[in-house]
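Hi support team,

I'm opening this ticket because the web form for multi-chain structure prediction keeps timing out on my end. I have pasted the exact lines I submitted so you can reproduce it. The total is 456 residues across two entries, so I didn't expect it to be a heavy job. Is there a limit I'm missing, or should I split the entries? Thanks in advance, R.K.
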Amino acid sequence: MTTESAIPVNIITGFLGSGKTTLLQRLLRSPQLANTAVLINEFGEVGLDHMLLEAVDTETVVLQSGCICCTIRGDLKDSISALYGKRERGEIPPFERLAIETTGLADPAPILFTVMADPVLRHHFRLGNVVTTVDAVNAARHMADNPESVKQVAIADRLVLTKTDLDEAGDEAEIHAALRALNPTAPIFEAASDEIEPDALIANDIHDPAGKTAEVRHWLAREADLSETDHGHDVNRHDGDIHAFCLIFEKPLDWTAFGIWLTMLLHAHGEAVLRVKGLLNVVDLPAPVAIHGVQHLVHPPVHLERWPDRDRRSRIVFIVRGLERGPILRSLAAFNRLAEERATFR
Amino acid sequence: MCGLCGVLGVEDHWTDTAASPAVFAGRKTPRTRRHERQRRAVLANRVLAFYGMNLSDWQGTRYLLATATGRTQIIDHLAALWPAAAKMAKTPCDPLDPALITSLEADRGR
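Hello R.K., no limit was hit. The queue was backed up. Here is the completed structure from your submission:
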């Protein structure tokens, strides 16, 4: 199965009480997402999330083992496989998308891994946008006290700021700046004031033929702010070790050398590379190649028909924990030069 | 499976251009799969030399990673290379290691 025909899986994450279920309910009412199956994680004694969701989607399957993150990756895999089996046997409608709502306390990375790395699942499913809800009233406290909350923001493809209408302190600009520092690649939506288009949040991703160029523009939207220094890196803050930066290369990169370098970087520092998203000008190729990865895993490269703008430089945005831009830039440049020197062996 | 040697096919890795034909179809000078693997081994060896190791393509399906003393391990693809290399070299293989970067910067086509 090709990436285009695989069923997209969207992860809806966000800290406790940040409005994940409300957002999901709102999205599932739209006709674009009518054929979406939903997996939720029952957490705690009362399956409140499930009770709320049941009215929305009768195909809800509740995971019984508590936290998705660490204990039941196997369960999650089994739940998705079972759902797919029912779909293939015609026992449930042929859903075209799967949404997984995580618990507020979950690190979303293991869920992404399950979808991307499981040898069976990855032939039928592909990862879609990761949507993270952020409660505007409590964002600062959540992010200061809970590393999971910071990681949920850092790993997101879309950020949805909720409860802005209840935020009496009115420090929205500050929250925007904090989110931008952690994740400059994800567009921010406001649930209370924006008319949220399900397509913009869920469907438009790097594998959407019509939307992939626009998606790459989101990745690189703040590239100019990120290219000179480590952005928003304040070691005194609790979340200060997660930050973003952009590497820019004037000359085309050699794909083989890049592959050797990135696999080695992720082997040594995969835990610390929360996301990597980039547009590469590859030696010998007329069109750009988009790459993106989450921690140890990298998606298959994506072909873009044309450059999204006039800039022909390779640009790679990293969202990392505790790594510095300088050594990464120097390292990739050194690896790439090995290929340049071997010009005769192309 | 190859009937002669009993080797199962290997899953594609994201670094293999053959696994993403749509992405690399527009290449001005196309490479065969075998050519690409040879070239990957040549470039990887510039890095592995720092750890006293060598990589070679084996039958276009696997790689052989060998130490200077001849200890050898079969590797499926690049992602499997680095954990194996670190284990055999008994040292972390870190591309951000300043000593490695300095060595690569000084390397002028050994």
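A quick check on our side: The mean pLDDT of chain B is 87. Let us know if the file doesn't open in your viewer.
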